[in-house]
Amino acid sequence: MVSRSVCVSGILFSNTGSVYTGKSRFNAGEALRSFGRAFFALLAPLIILGGIYSGFVTPTEASAICCFYCLVIGLFVYREIKPKEICRIVFDGVKSAAGIMLIVASTQVFGWVITRAGIPQTLARMFTSSISSPLVFTFAVCLILLVAGCFIDAVPALLIFAPIFCPTAQAYGINMVYFGVVMVIVLCIGLATPPVGINLYVASSVGGQPVHKIIPHLPIPLMAIFVGTLLVVLFPGIVTFLPSVL
Asked: Parallel, antiparallel, or unpaired for β 19-20 and 5-8?
């Protein structure tokens, strides 16, 4: 049986339920040879991240370009993909994406319902109406977005809350670049938190592991993200340094 694997929280799982742990000693020569064999594969994340952060392509365009690149590399360089297998690969990809997009669609509907009910606006006003400190306001926003991110996908949550919080943030004199980064970071935490953590379902689909087996390994990476978010909130210069230089 073919075994697929997925890395979550630094631990590599297979669809057979086993955990891969390294037992052999490090060998520099073998590491260099492995790097050489994997060179073209390692260019894939470089295409994605380099294209996005350089501003040449959008994330959607970067993913499409990278898929085409991986197809070419798999066909002509590594020759692990046969032309007759392309249809099956596309079909498997559609099946994996369908389940994830169903969850995304459900969160979109949920977000529309609570927005029509005025719940986000009521919560935002309740939390921020009696706050006088910009720092306390930022922490209140983080708390609201952290809870919202557990139930709503990041994009609709941003579209819902940004028009509510941004005018207040400007009134407090908060740098809008910094505030936008904080909002995005906090909402992205929701991508890895139940019950609507899209990344959890992606990992489950790729690795063939049920979500409940992935969740117990989340505290450590989530704690790291929380610490990073706390540093960004307390020290805005981390975000504003480069924009101020430019």
From this structure: unpaired
pLDDT one-digit tens code per residue, 202-219: 787 777 788 888 888 888
195: preceding bond cis by omega (within 30 degrees): yes
> Measured in whole angstroms, how far is the alpha carbon of residue 207 from the centre of its chain?
17
Of the CA atoms within 13 Å of residue 4, those in its CB half-sphere come to 8
The amino acid occupying position 158 is L
End-to-end CA distance of the chain: 54
Determine if residue 17 is left, alpha or beta; phi over 0 gives left, psi from -120 to 50 gives alpha, anything else beta: left
In the predicted structure, residue 87 carries a pLDDT above the cut 80: yes
In this predicted structure, what is the pLDDT of residue 233? 92
